[in-house]
Recover the amino acids of this structure.
């Protein structure tokens, strides 16, 4: 660590730089191709809304289920080869789409299959990269690292969709899928460039008398850690519910704004693109706020505040006032999330034993993906029965009710300096 203007700064090193660069290029490709599959389904394959909804929900949900056994599989393997494999799988699966289109054989079934494969590879990469990050960065630098990833995510979110929209207008949606595939190839090369030898984790001995029960225990160990940890359990359950309810509002809000309220597509896109700048602001504030007020207070405050704003979306009206309202609500929501997310990511890594990181991150991602898919489908049904504005309001009210889930953060003890490994696990490497 070095001191700059009286403040301690953690040097993360060139190896983290390569990991960060790999993440940045893949995030840029992902957001450049945002909604590309839906556009291909609508504009190229001429499918209906039901098939587009199936593509948006079933693909990630099934991909999450496919990723469940991958958590235990990758736990005791070197993480860099796993990340490279996940990148190459995503690259190959996505390249199959423009290839099939060029040959005139592209169908909806292939799109659905590719979305499942990519979703499973996404979850695998996320779990492996989180586990590798903990071994790559000193403990004091985890929040700095997660804040940089959060800033990169929001930068890609701001710039990617407008550039992707322009590319779709000029070249068609299939081209953006090819660009996304290329981004994963570049990501794999970036991870390959990380120097240093990665030590293979040591698998603890398993009781042979357990048989298949031991393998089932491996599958569930990530969820067991999350649900038995008094620090992580409220954060885990709150995140699954809050993320799902926020995303469940999106389809009814799109129907309301683009339908009865008469917003043009460009203004609808603007309403959600500009507020993403709040994510950049929040991610920049996360580390200094945590240093000044402590992580627990920052998690509690930003976690509660991020759930307070979405109920205001039920009040949207036509014209400029409605546009300003949506932008203001989204700006406040995204800024709070930009503070909450990197602090949560650092806290989650620190509170997870080294021999459970991949399984815990995999369980977390699978739960949030499936929870979001289920709530999105449920809210689509609610919107069809009661109207989009009622569905938006219901999600907003339920979000307000999630605040008590974080109340334990207000009275808990400060974060421990370290977390012991699980009883059967190997000794910590750092």
């Amino acid at each position: 660590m070095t001191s700059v203007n009286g403040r301690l700064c953690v040097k993360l090193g060139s190896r983290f730089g390569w990991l960060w660069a790999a993440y940045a290029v893949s995030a840029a490709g992902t957001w450049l191709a945002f909604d590309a599959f839906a556009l291909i389904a609508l504009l190229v394959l001429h499918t209906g809304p039901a098939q587009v909804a199936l593509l948006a929900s079933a693909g990630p949900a099934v991909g999450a289920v496919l990723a469940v056994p991958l958590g235990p599989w990758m736990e005791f393997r070197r993480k860099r080869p796993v990340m490279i494999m996940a990148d190459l799988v995503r690259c190959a699966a996505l390249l199959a789409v423009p290839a099939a289109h060029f040959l005139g054989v592209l169908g909806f079934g292939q799109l659905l299959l590719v979305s499942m494969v990519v979703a499973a590879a996404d979850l695998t990469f996320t779990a492996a990269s989180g586990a590798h990050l903990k071994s790559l960065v000193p403990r004091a630098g985890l929040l700095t690292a997660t804040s940089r990833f959060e800033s990169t995510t929001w930068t890609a979110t701001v710039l990617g969709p407008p550039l992707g929209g322009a590319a779709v207008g000029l070249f068609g949606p299939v081209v953006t899928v090819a660009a996304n595939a290329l981004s994963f190839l570049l990501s794999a090369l970036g991870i390959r460039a990380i120097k240093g030898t990665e030590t293979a984790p040591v698998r603890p001995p398993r009781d042979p008398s357990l048989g298949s029960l031991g393998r089932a225990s491996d599958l569930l160990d990530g969820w067991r850690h999350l649900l038995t940890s008094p620090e992580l359990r409220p954060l885990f359950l709150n995140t699954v519910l809050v993320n799902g309810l926020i995303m469940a509002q999106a389809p009814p809000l799109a129907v309301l704004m683009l339908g009865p309220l008469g917003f043009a597509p460009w203004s609808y896109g603007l309403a959600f693109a500009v507020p993403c700048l709040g994510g950049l602001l929040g991610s920049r504030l996360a580390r200094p706020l945590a240093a000044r007020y402590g992580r627990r207070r920052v998690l509690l405050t930003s976690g509660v505040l991020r759930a307070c704003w979405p109920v205001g979306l039920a009040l949207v009206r036509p014209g400029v006032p409605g546009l300003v309202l949506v932008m203001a609500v989204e700006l406040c929501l995204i800024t709070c999330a930009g503070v909450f997310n990197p602090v949560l990511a650092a806290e989650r890594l620190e509170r997870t034993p080294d021999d459970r990181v991949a399984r815990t991150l995999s369980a977390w991602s699978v739960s949030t993906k499936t929870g979001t898919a289920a709530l999105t489908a449920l809210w689509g049904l609610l919107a069809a029965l009661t109207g989009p504005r009622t569905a938006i309001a219901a999600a907003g009210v339920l979000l307000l009710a999630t605040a008590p889930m974080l109340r334990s953060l207000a009275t808990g003890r400060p974060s421990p300096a370290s977390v012991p490994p699980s009883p059967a696990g190997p000794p910590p490497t750092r």
Summary: Residues 1-8, 209-214, 413-430 have pLDDT under 50 and may be disordered. The first strand starts at residue 2 and ends at 4. The first helix runs from residue 13 to 32.
